[in-house]
Design brief:
The complex is a heterodimer of chains A (about 190) and B (about 240).
Chain A: H1 2-12, E1 15-21, E2 24-29, H2 34-44, E3 49-58, E4 63-72, E5 77-86, H3 101-113, H4 144-151, H5 163-171, H6 179-185
Parallel strand pairs in A: 2-5
Antiparallel strand pairs in A: 1-2, 3-4, 4-5
Chain B: H1 3-19, E1 36-39, E2 45-48, H2 50-53, H3 68-79, E3 82-85, E4 111-114, E5 122-126, H4 131-143, E6 149-153, H5 156-159, E7 181-183, H6 190-205, H7 211-217, H8 219-229
Helix pairs in contact in B: 3-6
Classes of the chains: A alpha+beta (about 190), B alpha/beta (about 240).
Chain lengths: ~190, ~240
């Protein structure tokens, strides 16, 4: 695994290399080189299994972080390639030609974070929610509570009880609270 | 009939069926639902509008109870034949299969499961209901023959439950379809479900389970609420 990372580093100039375990490594890579590197890993280094593709919203840095997680069945190792893209202009080169399941991941990211993948098949179709018109719902600046409050007729008389406290009052109303319970409550 | 005449007739029929339906904002239309021209077996070209052509454009009709001893007899008969649609909308649907086992045995109450809405008169909304599922629920509910009853299962249908702040699940079911019986809990046990059924039977016998008529009466209000959250309304307004 180490030699593969060194080779990849000399080829594509990786950043933030983290050896999480012997068989799990994460590294960041430039947006321009990312798909090249994934193709190289698949075709030359035996990372033939595409595990998943996900996104993290770093709203403070104004960036989206895409993660391509690849698996090498022979070495039983995983390699996660992180790519940072601009949050104001979220667009990434599509990787749909490498594995077919990437179609679905890119469709999901398009809906949940609004990231464009030009040329990816069926990327504009609905994925989970239908007819969404607000800002993409997994972005961190989308306030789900506020949206639910103004959309779905919330009941005003909603109350929340601590289950332990509620049952104690209900079952043993006269029993004094023990020191241990007081400690647990804190 | 010549091709031109047929085309005229078809477009006339289309205009008529569209006029019967309340217009809604259709921002998203699936490619399958778009208006298209199809070549019929005799070579003529006919226009198909899948959203309107496959359904009736009529509004639901209110059916007044007959009253007196006849209605009492009918209500008794209805209460003894509750046929439930086998459609699980959320996590609570896992509480329904035990009812069919000998341990809980819902058949002794005259309740049984049916595979199609055309044969059922009770609908269990089991747990949280996402907007996507609500669209299917409305479509299914409207296909059920009246008198029909809705049982809302679990806290999610009452006030949203643990999904009260979710962007994709509704909070109150009774704003979208009328509800006869609520069963609280997260999740209610099969015994609670049976208690709910017993309550529903009492309501039917007393003549208080007339929610299908309420739906017809307040149709516009329910439709407005439904359309507020279902943005891609690619179906007719009444799916009968």
């Amino acid at each position: 695994m180490k030699t593969i990372i060194e080779k990849l580093n000399s080829k594509y100039n990786l950043q933030e290399i983290v050896y999480q375990r012997d068989n799990l490594v994460f590294a960041a890579i430039n947006k321009e080189n990312a798909i090249d590197a994934v193709t190289y890993l698949r075709d030359y280094e035996g990372f033939s299994h595409f595990v998943l593709m996900s996104c993290v919203d770093w709203i403070e840095d104004g960036k989206f972080q895409l993660l391509y997680l690849l698996n090498n069945p022979t070495l039983k190792s995983d390699l996660g390639l992180k790519v940072y893209i601009d949050r104001n202009n979220p667009e990434m080169v599509s990787a749909h030609h490498l594995w077919k399941q990437i179609w679905t991941y890119q469709r999901e990211l398009k809906e949940a974070f609004g990231i464009n993948f030009p040329g990816s098949p069926r990327v504009d179709e609905n994925f989970v929610v239908e007819g969404w018109t607000d800002i993409p719902h997994m972005r961190r600046d989308f306030d789900t509570h506020e949206y639910a409050q103004k959309t779905y007729f919330p009941r005003g008389d909603r109350k929340t009880n601590d289950p332990a406290e509620y049952m104690r009052k209900k079952l043993y109303p006269n029993q004094p609270i023990t020191a241990k319970q007081r400690k647990d409550d804190k | 009939m010549s091709e031109l005449d047929l085309n005229d007739k078809v477009s006339e029929m289309l205009a008529k069926s569209e006029a019967n339906v309340i217009k809604s904002e259709k921002t998203f239309i699936h490619p399958e639902d778009e208006v298209r021209e199809v070549v019929a077996p005799d070579g003529s070209i006919i226009k198909i509008n899948p959203i309107y052509d496959y359904f009736s454009g009529e509004r639901p009709q209110e059916e007044k109870p007959r009253g007196g001893i006849v209605e009492k007899f009918l209500n008794w008969a209805r209460s003894e034949s509750i046929w439930v649609l086998g459609f699980g909308t959320g996590c609570g649907s896992i509480e329904i299969p035990p009812l069919v086992t000998p341990r809980f045995d819902m058949f002794r109450f005259g309740i049984q499961m049916r595979p199609t809405p055309r044969q059922s008169n009770a609908f269990i909304i089991s747990g949280y209901l996402s907007v996507k599922t609500l669209k299917r629920v409305i479509r299914t509910y409207e296909q059920m023959p009246a008198p029909k009853y809705v049982i809302a299962l679990g806290s999610c249908t009452i006030n949203g439950g643990m999904y009260y702040d979710s962007y994709s699940t509704i909070n109150r079911l009774d704003k979208y379809i009328p509800v006869d019986v609520y069963i609280a809990g997260c999740m209610p046990r099969p015994e609670a479900l049976i208690a709910g059924f017993v309550k529903l039977k009492e309501l039917i016998k007393e003549g208080k389970a007339e929610k299908a008529n309420e739906y017809a009466r307040n149709f516009d209000e329910y439709k407005a609420n439904q359309k507020k959250i279902i943005k891609d309304w690619s179906m007719p307004d009444y799916n009968w």
